[in-house]
Amino acid sequence: MAALLSWVWTLGGSSRFVEPESVTDDDETLVYGQATANLMEAYRAKTGSSDARRPLLVDDIVDALKRIQIEPSRVQVRDMLRFAAECRTTESDRRKHLTFGELCLFAVDLSAGLYDRYWTYGQKSTTFEERKERNRRRASSSVKYQVFLGGSCNPTTWRQDIVIPILKEEGVSFYNPQVETWHPDLIEIEEKAKDAAEAFFFVIDNQTRAIASMVEVAYLSASGKPIILTLIDYPETITIDGTVLEDGELQDLVRGRIFLCSLMAHRGLPVFNDIAKAARACCQVIKHNVPITSFGLKDGAQPARMAGVSVGKTLVAARETFRHCSASQTNFISTIEARLALKSLCQVDDEDDWDCYYVRIPEKKSRFSFNEFCCLAAETLLQKNNRNWFLTITEGISSSLARLFNSLLKWLQRAEVRREYSRDVFLGGSCGTTTWRKETSIPMLQGHGISFYNPQVEHWNVRFLPVEAQAKESCRLLLYVIGSNSLSVASLVEAASFIGEGRSIVLCLNNIADGTEINGVLIAGRAARDYNRGRSYTAQYANQNNVSVFESAREATQCVIARVKGRPAVERIDSAMKAMKRSIPSLPQIDEFQKQQQQQQ
């Protein structure tokens, strides 16, 4: 509550008039009240100039918003820049920056999302306590560790050099799976350590590919496990096992990391960029029951508290309203047109509303640029929202509890609503130059009248992420084909996540043969083992959750058709697992699986 009150006060909570900074048509009027005044102070602090026309560059956006208690994620900053560029009138003005007016409207979106999500924050710790108690009951070992240290292993030393000393200093117990000599007996010990762990500490560094670790984080986080993730960005040139990675391979690894960060943000989990700070945060989670979702920039993490808040809708609506109300179709609108536009955009009905929101339009002002209109709209919306929020907060504890109860009731009602699907199958997995969709799956699905979504495009870009996410949500069943002629790190991460979520998914997994050339990159030795280990971890999670795994796209598609049509299908997990065994004979998870299969037979 104190944090919310502090934020509301910072962003226009004080009830006082603030006069506009200019009153002539020659100069832009950008401050219309307390909210835009506070934003202007933060804006000027980062641009280093009193000239409000100077654009806010991409590196300063986060710091500027942080000054008003708002911490956007990387994905949200990318969305801000994209929407801002699309709403500008000329191609030459589509650089990566924000004007003050654009910043104001993005603050509107984020601030509204902060309030809507505030009442769910307290539920995190309760859920976490339930998970801890459940894990304690499930653990059968007499030795229980509070933290499981997962992530990049050899040749990294972050466990011994950084994390373990901090955990020892704070008196937090841990299990370290990194050993000099591995033996099969460690499998059971490691699994029990995971079952009993109160938190999972993962580091995905820049010295290894860490594909299996990304798959593991995706699965565990989707399963509801408390994950504290540190991700160290790759440098421009990276050497692994004495080999400099080619651009094609590096791009695939980076794409996998982007997908993983997107999945973490979707679940409200922050991603740290400093191992020591992440270790300190982990100690707070264990010792003081601090919710993982509460960590932000000051803790060395990319915050995710507002990760589910979409940005850009207010800016797009403002642009359309501005164009609609401009009688002369110029870059300016009159004062009368501005008032009409605000009535539509902000739903302000009469002059009395202007007074109670402490918004002042200069008497001498006869026209408004789009930038000025953005500031005016932001001031109105922020003051309107803040006024409503103050009324809610001052109703007292009983009102707060009632709101919390209503929010919980709505959440339960939403959980009971059956998911509605617009398509049958999402065709995920290997893209690039692969042809399994065009040559195999699509003709088979079309032959049975089954609808599908094909995400394969010639040149993939991060801006496709929201579209693909919506398509995955709207499809009844997910088919992921990960072949031997593509690296497909992002697809492995996604598949593991969907398995953890319990989505209806069918897999086709093929290992990469040692010495295979993929997109001009030779995959041999350790590289082949790294990529195949990621596939094996995905197959292991599929086996644990009764997910069908096949060796060919045709068999997988037949299983999909049978499921959509409601007919039983032959599951062939064992054949795929045997194929994994042939490619990586030393992988402990596959050895254990085969041993179990023999005992059952």
List its traits.
22 helices; 19 strands; 6-stranded mixed beta sheet; disordered N terminus; 5-stranded parallel beta sheet; 601 residues
Give the strand tally: 19
User: How much helix is in the residues?
Assistant: 40-55%
- Number of helical regions: 22
Low-confidence stretches: 1-9, 12-20, 115-128, 131-142, 389-398, 413-418, 568-591
Largest sheet: 6 strands, mixed
Regarding quaternary structure, what we see is single chain
Q: Over the alpha carbons, how many angstroms does the gyration radius reach?
A: 27 Å
Overall 3D shape: globular
Mean pLDDT: 77
> What percent of residues are in strands?
5-15%
Cα distance, first to last residue? 59 Å
Placed side by side, the strands forming the largest sheet appear as 4-3-5-6-9-10
CATH class of the domain at 423-600: Alpha Beta
User: In the CATH hierarchy, what is the architecture of the domain at 423-600 at level 2?
Assistant: 3-Layer(aba) Sandwich
**What is the CATH topology of the domain at 423-600?**
Rossmann fold
Query: Structural class given helices, strands, pairing?
Result: alpha/beta
Ordered list of secondary-structure elements with their pairings:
Blueprint: H1 2-13, H2 34-47, E1 56-57, H3 61-66, H4 74-86, E2 97-98, H5 100-138, E3 147-151, H6 158-170, E4 174-175, H7 186-196, E5 199-204, H8 211-222, E6 227-231, E7 239-240, E8 243-244, H9 247-266, E9 271-272, H10 275-288, E10 301-302, H11 313-325, E11 332-334, H12 335-346, H13 351-356, E12 367-369, H14 370-393, H15 397-416, E13 423-429, H16 436-447, E14 452-453, H17 465-473, E15 475-482, H18 489-501, E16 505-509, E17 516-518, E18 521-523, H19 526-544, E19 548-550, H20 553-565, H21 573-583, H22 588-600
Parallel strand pairs: 3-4, 3-5, 5-6, 6-9, 13-14, 13-15, 15-16, 16-19
Antiparallel strand pairs: 1-2, 7-8, 9-10, 11-12, 17-18
